[in-house]
Amino acid sequence: MCGIVGFAGKSAAKDFLFEGLHRLEYRGYDSAGIALLNQDKFNIYKTVERVQALKAIKGFDNDGGALGIGHTRWATHGAPSVENAHPHTSENMKFAVVHNGIIENYASLKAELEAEGISFKSQTDTEVIPQLLQKYYEGNLIEAVREVTARLEGSYALGIICTDFPDTLVAAKHFSPLIIGLGEDANIIASDVTAIVSHTKKVLYIEDGETALITPNSVTVYSADGTALERTPSVVGWDVAAAEKGGYEHFMMKEIHEQPDAVSQTVESRIRGREIVFEDIKLNGESLKNINRISIIACGSAYHAGMVGKYVLEETLRIPTEVDLASEFRYRNPIVDEKTLTIVISQSGETADTLAALKEAKKRGSHVLSIVNVVGSSIAKASDDVIYTWAGPEIAVATTKGYSTQLSVLYLFAVWAARMLGTMESEKIEALFDELRLLPKKIKRVIEAEPIIKQAAKKCGNPHSLFFIGRNTDYAVALEASLKLKEISYIHSEAYAAGELKHGTISLIEEGRTVIALCACERLFDKLLSNVKEVRARGADVLACATEGNTVIEAEAQEVIYIPKTHPLLSASLEVIPFQLYAYYAALYNGCDIDKPRNLAKSVTVE
Ligand code: F6R
User: Cys-Cys link to 153, which of 96, 105, 162, 279 (CB 3.0-4.6 A)?
Assistant: First the structure.
């Protein structure tokens, strides 16, 4: 996720900005930049290398400007490049801006400004902000910021400087993190406390919709209507290491907790009124009509997201959909042609097998749509169309928010395509759309049940092996839950389609074996209940996951974790959460290296 820093002080700003960006490196980035105001003009330093490279740019080390802003960019709109790196400036070079978040209505704002004769230097959504400041500014900086932010839709944390105000930094926040640090003869801003704690532990929090006017000796926070607000500073107790993880012990836990926001960002940034808009994709109603098969290709958890996608796409589009492991697909002479839509799923966008399979599908004439988290990655570049998941950088090796946002894009795509193809009754598709928008809140509720799940993981201890069973999308979740548990806790587990148990595996069920029964699929609940009875009769201990209101399961399972009711096609998004937490706690109790499990890499760039 992008990181921003800002400094208004009486000494050279570059030292804090440089160190602050270093501290924010853990958030992941592809380029970095700093703007310093010196003698009424901006000096801008940018790099597509590491933050360290800023130091080597001519003039940086001697730049004594005492006002400045800095940024580490995680590309969303526009590939990683010097032009797209922040800070961005207005055409008249009066304003420089750093931004974390996504401006959802940037395309229409950009068109408006271009029609007025403004020319843009980057492909970013952010550049509309300095250009709008230029348009609205009439000498009152905070007023101009207020007018501009009123026109922005989406999320932002902003650091703004203006050549007319050599000691003033303006900050604004709406759904993206921003903190103000109160120092001696210098006040600072940053995306998180990591960049601040080595300077000061005294911080001010600003809320969504608020702006702040920051000088070396004063900070004034304003509400959206311009009223000056009283704010009492807080004292941060964290050290740098704790701050990087947002106070959580591990990145994985932090990322589990980021899921409501990541899903919301992924979904809401594509919605205009009730329309779903995928910017810049070539696929449309006409080309979709020519598709007679969908082939989903991915590895690991992304493959499990694809399995959920199969159920969702077949139900909504009535197009036969296959899911393949990329490592199998690439070597099996697949039947794919120009009537096949290939959907490639990858968090990193660099997985070697997935990339090779993509190329194979393309060679055979298929249109490739990829669902990727990393902008400008190899898979994104090689695809005909890309829909990005806006999960932000994922640092823990085991994916959580990457997987959840992949599911969200698949749901969005299903609704978008079903509306165009008319393959589902409109009432049904609109009900699915409405429920999709409620997912972030419901995911949050599941995360709040963490103490119950922690207890269940503790009780289960360190079994030799356990089983996950489910049907339909519950089966797809069983596979993901089992993978999560194996990879980080090193506990062996098997995921089984519940109906398959009696074809062999049930011989492994014995007294004391733990079976985790995923029961969210209400249509098949009675079938699953029979499977639960079968394993109970052979002495298994059953932990079930069911939707709220399903009390029938309590008679059979020793323990039940409840998730909120949702649309049947969306339940995987809620059901997976308890088992991310379960795997996390099982790994914690087993003393495993949670963020970096043995033998695993975050990005598998070799075959
Ligand atoms: C499991 C996990 C992996 C990845 C797989 C594909 O937690 O993270 O199974 O899902 O290696 O990676 P991407 O999505 O980067 O292609």
Answer: 105
Q: Are 374 and 390 in contact (CB under 8 A)?
A: no
595 inside domain: no
Examine the pLDDT at 395 and tell me if it is beyond 90: no
- Please give the pLDDT value at position 599: 87
The secondary structure of 261-302 as a DSSP string is HHHHHHHHTTEETTEE--TT----HHHHHT--EEEEEE-HHH
Q: Pocket residues for ligand 1 (CB within 6 Å)? A: 299-302, 346-348, 351, 354, 398-399, 483, 487, 603-604
User: What pLDDT is attached to residue 292?
Assistant: 97
Q: Where does a domain end: 412, 446, 480?
A: 446
Distance 146 CA to ligand 1 centre (A): 42
User: Is 463 found in the same domain as 422?
Assistant: no
- pLDDT, tens digit, for every residue of 68-84? 999 999 888 888 999 99
Confidence bin at 1 (pLDDT 50/70/90): low
The pLDDT tens digits of the residues spanning 354-372 come to: 999 999 999 999 999 999 9
**What tokens were used for 100?**
């974390």
DSSP string, 342-378: EEEEESSS--HHHHHHHHHHHHTT-EEEEEESSTT-H
Q: Which domain holds residue 541?
A: 449-589
The number of distinct structural domains making up the chain is 3
CATH code of residue 263? 3.40.50.10490
2 assigned to active site: yes
Count of C-beta atoms within a 10 Å radius of residue 441? 12
